[in-house]
Amino acid sequence: MEELIFRNATLEDLPEIVEIYNSTVPSRMVTADTENISVESRMQWFHDHNAETRPLWIIQDQDQHMAGWVSFSSFYGRPAYNGTVELSIYMHENSRGKGYGKKVLQYCIDNAGRFGVKTILGFIFLHNEPSLKLFRHFGFEDWGVFPDVAVLDGVERTLVILGKRINESSKANC
């Protein structure tokens, strides 16, 4: 399988980041947004990330094409939670189903300590079985279940919060 390249996102990447995000909206599997978002609406989110503590990485294939993006976002916004992040992984439509998710999640686990991260959380809809399977493969456990908290096209959906504590033993390749 080809190697992936991870680099810090720049403002010039934001339109493609938003495009990839918007490509997931119609599936009703990945995001609770029901309409496409705009680049302007993501400016503050973009600036909330930084290379020192809350990275937003572009994932590139060997041909330098954007295969997706991944971010560490602050959890709950209070200082006591600084060691905890919400992980978001979004892959370009052409990069889905190629096994990249495992490489991306392994990269995040392996590098979390560099950013002071001790706990990674994933917020995943219960009906998003591929993402649940991916996170559970790496030892993420169900830490919270929020039954029917989202309504997508008139269908109530359950949100599962998966968590994993990061330590040296977490860095072994799976």
What does this 3D model show about the protein?
With 174 residues, this protein is α+β, with helices and mostly antiparallel strands. The protein has one domain: 3-Layer(aba) Sandwich (Aminopeptidase). It has helices at residues 14-22, 43-47, 100-111, 129-137, and strands at residues 5-8, 56-60, 66-74, 84-91, 119-125, 141-152, 155-165. The chain has a seven-stranded mixed sheet, with helices on both faces. Strand 6 (141-152) and strand 7 (155-165) form a beta hairpin. The protein starts with a strand and ends in a 9-residue tail after the last strand. The mean pLDDT is 93.
CATH topology: Aminopeptidase
As a percent range, the share of helical residues equals: 10-25%
Looking at this structure, what is the CATH superfamily? Gcn5-related N-acetyltransferase (GNAT)
Please give the largest β-sheet. Answer: 7 strands, mixed
State the shape: globular
Whole-angstrom Rg: 16 Å
CATH class: Alpha Beta
Strand content: 25-35%
Instruction: Provide the residue-averaged pLDDT.
Output: 93
Q: How many domains, as an integer? A: 1
Secondary-structure-based class equals alpha+beta
The DSSP helix count reads 4
- N to C succession of SSEs: EHHEEEHEHEE
Uncertain regions spanning at least 5 consecutive residues? none
Span from first to last CA? 15 Å
Strand order of the largest sheet: 1-2-3-4-5-7-6
CATH architecture type: 3-Layer(aba) Sandwich
